Amino acid sequence: MLLFLLLILQTSAAVGQIDPGHCRFPLGMEDGRVKDKDITASSKWYETTGPQFARLNREEGDGAWCPEGQLQHSDSQYLQVDLSVLTFLTLVGTQGRYARGLGKEFARAYRLNYSRDGLTWKAWKNRQGNTVIEGNKNTYAIVYKELHPSIIARYVRLIPVTELSSTVCMRVELYGCPWHDGLISYSAPEGQLMMPPGYPPASLNDSIYDGTHERSCSGGLGQLTDGVVGMDDFLLTHEKQVWSGYDYLGWRNDSQGTQGHVEMEFVFDRQRNFTSMKVHSNNLFTRGVKIFSSVSCWFKPRLIANWEQETVTFRTVLDDRNPSARYVTVPLNQRTAKALRCRFYFADVWMMFSEISFQSGENPHPDLKTSTHGELKVKSAAPSANDPTEETNTPILIGCLVTIILLLVVIIFLILWCQCVCKVLEKAPRRILDEEVTIRLSSCSDTIIMQTPPVPPRTGHAPAACGGGYAEPDVTQCTPHQSFHSNAPHYAETDIIRLQGVTGSNMYAVPALTVDSLTRKDISAAEFPRQQLIFREKLGEGQFGEVHLCEAEGLPEFLGEGSPLPDRDSRPVLVAVKQLRADATLQARNDFLKEIKIMSRLDDPNIIRLLCVCVSSDPLCMVTEYMENGDLNMFLSQREIESTLTHANSIPSVSLCDLLHMAVQISSGMKYLASLNFVHRDLATRNCLVDRRLTIKIADFGMSRNLYSSDYYRIQGRAVLPIRWMAWESILLGKFTTASDVWAFGVTLWEIFTLCKEQPYSLLSDEQVIENTGEFFRNQGRQIFLYSPPLCPPSLFEVMMRCWSRNITDRPTFDGIYQTLRRHVRE
Ligand SMILES: *[C@@H]1O[C@H](CO)[C@@H](O)[C@H](O)[C@H]1NC(C)=O
Ligand SMILES: *[C@@H]1O[C@H](CO)[C@@H](O)[C@H](O)[C@H]1NC(C)=O
Ligand SMILES: *[C@@H]1O[C@H](CO)[C@@H](O)[C@H](O)[C@H]1NC(C)=O
Ligand SMILES: *[C@@H]1O[C@H](CO)[C@@H](O)[C@H](O)[C@H]1NC(C)=O
Fold first, then answer.
1. Which stretches are transmembrane (predicted)?
2. Predicted local confidence at residue 93, as pLDDT
3. Domain architecture of the chain: domains with CATH
4. What are phi and psi of 772, to 5 degrees?
């Protein structure tokens, strides 16, 4: 579990684009994936010291590449490696000529040149502007040098340099990962100097840009592609010894060259089919910095061509509450292009970007480490602390130590946490624990080498006895939340189990019942004569049963006076009958009975009502109200918002007021469940039913699992979870509370106001949703929130945002939500 926790931290640290900390795979000099023909040199001393022998740790030929003759200080001999694809380079390893003890040559220092097209060469400089890299001190040890900034190139030249005339020989390996973005250059107005009162001036220029700097930057790459994302406070930097504002490129709205917008052009290696663009942007609005208000992009199929007329425009949701820097994802609608021009419009006086990345056809999931790096993970990964090197290892060693310290902290936290929570879980059947574990596993199926220590969460709470450390510091954590305190005093509150519905995957939290303890008297609903249920049609089907629409003869009389049936006129009473297949497993059978038991205890106008049951003989049935309009998701997705236009065509419509009414009803039903301390665990529009008067009732038929299977995330064929509706603590810690139902309510509200036309986070894959969960947990502003639906009043979006607060205590209660929504309806 410890490992899983760490791995989660590791994975979530890598959201975004290339993470230089993890992009350190050997690129094939040592293992031969770089072919001999792709290694060339300006000269060689003998055939046996040709460039093909410049492979790290190999002893072929005379054991290394050596340029001809004695190297002079002014000489510029080079070894050139063609990596055959654009590559993100983060590390270089060099070694001298050992030749089984006979060699004595090595390079004490070298420079690097690189090229993306093989024609124009650029000299690498570190962040302080130095070009010379310190090399080897003996003939055998490998010296690794981190490249800060990293290089994006296809061709690399290593140029040995020497003070005094001497012979040099080299063996090398390059480390990095493929550059899937395909961006080969961008141009942008030069960043500006900011003079914040009371702070040192912040230089927001592109200081590592490798193109030309005349007036504007063009023809190169720089800060926006170096893989270093800026911090929330743009004055702080990741590097030491650089000026403040270093990580950002920033512009002022009223300066020359920016008339309310900043225009940038992006050129790619070839035509690509673009999915999206991610812009990492600062949002420190207290100092006049905000993400852009909108962006418009033009596309060009070839370099020499006109910009296509049709643009893609995207409006962002401006955020005045969270000052964190964040990635803004701009959908690019699968447009094909070789070059892009984008205009970013100011939302405030300053706009600052630290990274821009592109997701295009060839590379639909650049964020997933396995897919991007799998092919490069051969034999060994990047060098670790075991390598016999000198001072270059210190940062790695420190990294390891920090990791160990963190591990200890986690262990301490876990021990404390266990003292509190494990006591509760001990009594729970094994299955729920297994499930938690698989959830954790699922988010870290790719192995990531621990090179950089996991970033500790910023909350800074010391591990405390109850729920400190990584977990939520709320007091509710230790009180079992999920049970009917008031209703079922004779069950142990702490025994929480998982219940399966008809389809075998519903989850409820209920007091545990052993099979023999569940007897007829636990079911308060009355037994209805089976022969009086007359089949009309099939409504749904699941793994373990079916739902039928039936006519119930004599049901009003059966239920008697004050029965909850809506109207008792002469028409036949229609009911929904959920029936368990005769061949269902014993488990499914028990779960079915337990579901009956739960439902028979719920009594609220906005909760689906259990009318009666047939459990004295097989097949087991439960009879509930029939809701004519089906589930809310289906209902809304087939409708348009009411407008003057909708009268013209035949699409049925709903009004904004209807939507608000629906939201109020759901919150009212949830308020009732919360008052019983009942946790629903799967609130979503697909689990709300609509009758012909637009009354909404919360249900969970389990049928939805089949119809809406893409809304659920299957973990190794076992648990099925609605991750797009789940709070971070439910996914990461397996913790389900009323507060996590509140989170799901926020998502449900969002669905309502998008008229269920879109799945939440539709641009993210399931794995990315889980990574995003890690960002919610870390809360460093990199989490992606659902956008504000165009129909949604801003004050309502604020309610949603509050439902998605990281801290449970910051989320509203259902009672509070209900009151707020009611106010909206009245206005
Ligand atoms: C390295 O790049 C610099 C700058 O473009 C250039 O002046 C120099 O000639 C290059 N050297 C080699 C060996 O390519
Ligand atoms: C960027 O600004 C810094 C600090 O003002 C300055 O030293 C550096 O030369 C500038 N870089 C470029 C490329 O203009
Ligand atoms: C781009 O990719 C999408 C999905 O992969 C595809 O539907 C679309 O046709 C592609 N567009 C072009 C112009 O190739
Ligand atoms: C720049 O921002 C300031 C403050 O928001 C605003 O008053 C001004 O009109 C803006 N200028 C331009 C050119 O957009």
1. 396-422
2. 94
3. 25-178 (2.60.120.260), 183-377 (2.60.120.1190), 512-826 (1.10.510.10)
4. -60, -35
